[in-house]
Design goal:
Helices cover 3% and strands 38% of the residues. The protein is mainly beta. The strands form five sheets. It has a five-stranded antiparallel beta sheet, with no helix packed on it. Strands 1-8 form a two-stranded parallel sheet. A hairpin with a 2-residue loop joins strand 12 and strand 13. The N terminus is likely disordered.
């Protein structure tokens, strides 16, 4: 993990809820083309820095690593690339860790009415394209990438996490200590 403090969410449109050195929440917003919200939107009057240099590169597979039987049935991984030629993102990486934090990628658009006038979507109208978890930062030449994985990894975690304590009676004897209890 790079950085000292957890960063909670990443989105094409926003990196939200970061924990600072003082444990107070901070919010960072980024976009691919720049966006400033209006006074009635949430967040109000906020500028999204246009530093997302490439749309998220996500890969989804049904089987993992060529294993069909006994392999994981669903896997989504990818990266979100930020422009960092001037080193503007270096402080973020140095001060905030992202490992295991929520990632939300949103996408907005532009509508054209009958008169041909184009209006950009408000941030509240953006649609969620991807939700997952951050895995960490990767440096490139003039870029910084955030590695992400989809929430499908949660399907591999056990639903029942209760274990025998090995204290006797209903908590099982010493032979059962730390074994998973049946559902």
């Amino acid at each position: 993990m790079l950085g000292r403090f957890p960063l909670s969410a990443a989105a094409l449109g926003s990196l939200e809820t970061a924990i600072s050195e003082t444990a107070a929440e901070q919010v960072f917003y980024f976009s691919s083309g720049g966006l400033t919200t209006g006074p009635e939107e949430a967040p109000a009057n906020w500028h999204f820095d246009p530093c997302v240099s490439r749309p998220p590169d996500l890969e989804r597979s049904i089987v993992e690593s060529g294993r069909f039987l006994g392999g994981n049935l669903l896997r989504t991984i990818g990266t979100i690339e930020f422009a960092n030629a001037e080193g503007d993102m270096d402080a973020l990486v140095a001060n905030f860790g992202v490992d295991g934090r929520r990632v939300c990628v949103k996408v907005g658009g532009v509508d054209t009415n009958q008169a041909g006038l184009r209006t950009a979507w408000s941030y509240g109208d953006f649609q969620v394209l991807f939700e997952g978890t951050a895995l960490g930062w990767e440096y490139g030449t003039d870029t910084l990438s955030l590695r992400v994985r989809g929430n499908d990894y949660l399907m591999r975690l056990p639903i029942q996490t209760d274990r025998y304590l090995g204290l006797g009676d209903y908590s099982g004897d010493e032979d059962l200590e730390d074994r998973q209890r049946p559902q």
